[in-house]
């Protein structure tokens, strides 16, 4: 795109027409030059202006970047295809409705999106990360003091990193499913857990698919289910991850746990 479509106005159309009363006069003579100047030419100019504005608004392609980039007004509705960090144009400068799509074309690395000044992203005054092959659509809010998170796609499979915290001999992660709606993230998946011993307090850390600054234990909540036991899932604020917990595991051998948890990005 590059610029929002602006309304076009005709100029000079049917300017100073003669009196339409049947009077036979020089002004009432039908001449091609008069029709062209007062009707044809203004309509031609008007149509060309509309075409130019439409091309500016809708004839666009990706804006490819390979180093740190700051979005500009001309990026409205464009896709920034990048392998590096992006700083957003100040919302007050961009104006309400300004929309930008950012795609991380890197095969493995995460990129960071930084708001301008005190602007927010999805209501949060902080940076935002996009994983490899992921994308996000951001739109300036009505107050022009931040960007709404319109959509986000997580392209790469999410396989959580498991941390054996307490009474865990072996743990195995599998590909999990992630759904993000605004600043809310929902995760479902399965893992295998082999406790060191039965009837003992057990803790297993589960990494988050999208980073969040967890503060309270209830900032992340969920449940893990196995055939003979249930596990609580809550926020490990110290390490900014989810934690699977059992006060006394009934298992002394390897078993599969199906889990589900949700948290707010902060």
Task: Fill in the keyword field for this structure.
266 residues; mainly beta; Jelly Rolls; Immunoglobulin-like; nine-stranded antiparallel β-sheet; six-stranded mixed β-sheet; 2 helices; 19 strands; 12% helix; 39% strand
Topology:
Blueprint: H1 32-58, E1 63-65, E2 69-70, E3 79-82, E4 86-87, H2 91-94, E5 99-104, E6 111-114, E7 120-121, E8 128-130, E9 135-140, E10 146-153, E11 162-166, E12 168-173, E13 177-181, E14 184-195, E15 202-206, E16 220-226, E17 229-236, E18 241-246, E19 255-264
Parallel strand pairs: 1-3, 2-4, 3-5, 4-6, 7-10
Antiparallel strand pairs: 5-9, 6-8, 9-10, 11-15, 12-14, 13-14, 14-19, 15-18, 16-17, 16-19, 17-18
Please characterize this protein's 3D structure.
With 266 residues, this protein is mainly beta. The protein folds into 3 domains: 1-59; 63-153, Jelly Rolls (Sandwich); 162-264, Immunoglobulin-like, CATH 2.60.40. Helices cover 12% and strands 39% of the residues. It is built from 2 helices and 19 strands. It has helices at 32-58, 91-94, and strands at residues 63-65, 69-70, 79-82, 86-87, 99-104, 111-114, 120-121, 128-130, 135-140, 146-153, 162-166, 168-173, 177-181, 184-195, 202-206, 220-226, 229-236, 241-246, 255-264. Strands 11, 12, 13, 14, 15, 16, 17, 18 and 19 form a 9-stranded antiparallel β-sheet that branches. Strands 1-3-5-9-10-7 form a 6-stranded mixed β-sheet. The chain is rod-shaped. The two termini are 32 Å apart.
């Amino acid at each position: 795109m590059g610029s929002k479509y602006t309304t076009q106005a005709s100029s000079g159309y049917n300017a100073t027409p003669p009196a339409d009363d049947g009077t036979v006069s020089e002004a009432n003579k039908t001449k091609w030059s008069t029709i062209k100047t007062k009707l044809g030419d203004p309509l031609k100019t008007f149509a060309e202006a509309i075409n130019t504005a439409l091309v500016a608004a809708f004839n666009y392609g990706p804006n490819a970047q390979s180093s740190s980039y700051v979005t500009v007004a001309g990026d409205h509705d464009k896709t920034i295809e990048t392998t590096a960090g992006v700083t957003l144009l100040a919302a007050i400068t961009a104006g309400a409705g300004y929309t930008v799509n950012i795609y991380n074309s890197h095969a493995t690395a995460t990129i960071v999106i930084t708001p301008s000044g005190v602007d927010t992203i999805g209501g949060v005054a902080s940076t935002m990360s996009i994983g490899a092959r992921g994308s996000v659509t951001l739109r300036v809010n009505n107050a022009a003091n931040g960007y709404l998170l319109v959509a986000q796609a997580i392209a790469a499979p999410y396989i959580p990193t498991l941390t054996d915290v307490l009474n865990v001999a072996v743990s195995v992660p599998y590909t999990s499913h992630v759904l993000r709606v605004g600043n809310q993230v929902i995760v479902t998946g399965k893992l295998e857990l082999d406790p060191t011993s039965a009837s003992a307090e057990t803790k297993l850390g589960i990494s988050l698919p999208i980073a969040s600054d967890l503060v309270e234990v209830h900032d992340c909540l969920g449940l893990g289910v196995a055939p003979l036991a249930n596990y609580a899932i809550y926020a490990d604020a110290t390490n900014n991850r989810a934690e699977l917990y059992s006060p006394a595991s009934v298992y002394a051998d390897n078993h599969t746990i199906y889990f589900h948890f949700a948290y707010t990005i902060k």
